[in-house]
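Milestone M4 deliverable, item 7.
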Amino acid sequence: MSTDNSGRVVLVTGGNRGIGRAIAERFVREGYRVAVTARSGEGPDGTLTVRADVTDSAAIDAAFTEVEQQLGPIEIVVANAGITKDTLLLRMSEDDFDSVVATNLGGSFRVVKRASKGMLKARFGRVILISSVVGLLGSAGQINYSSSKSALVGFARSLTRELGARGITANVVAPGFIETDMTAELSEELQAEYRKSIPAGRYGSPDEVAAAVTWLASDDAAYISGAVIPVDGGLGMGH
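Output delivered:
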């Protein structure tokens, strides 16, 4: 039986555009109180936007404090903020590698560490980490990005072992090719080429990713933790 989750407080990092924005919008539609972090721009209507760079612990702490004061303790955190700096290994600089890992993996660490304090107190929490199909499938030119995204699986499973008995779950959502501004910039030929590799024969929509995230946040998913939920049209099967 479904439980009314409305009124719970959600924080989505990088919630001003793309998949993060769609996730924030869906939580708003389902009656949650939603805050988003953004380095620039605003989150969708009905959300509280706070400025934060996920590579800066002090900025994360200040953002959490602001949300807690305005909305209440954060019960659900979606670590979505991420960057890419794609290039082949032999051309990849140390900064290309370090900055992507610091944002995508280190950012998740900082956000979840800060969120876990309130979750432990409440004996309730949902941690949802946004990974990628390339985290397990691999992708030429994305050693930094795929490394940071596959690491989130170990993160969620270790967190589950640490906090699972306290009413806190930690799961990973791994999107495949999703229709966003980033994919729209690809040439028609390249888009068609990528589509051929997807069993579903199409790109996903940001809202299809958001649907998986809001379900994991709900009471219906209370006994699911340490899972990797692919939203990829079958692209990463077997991984």
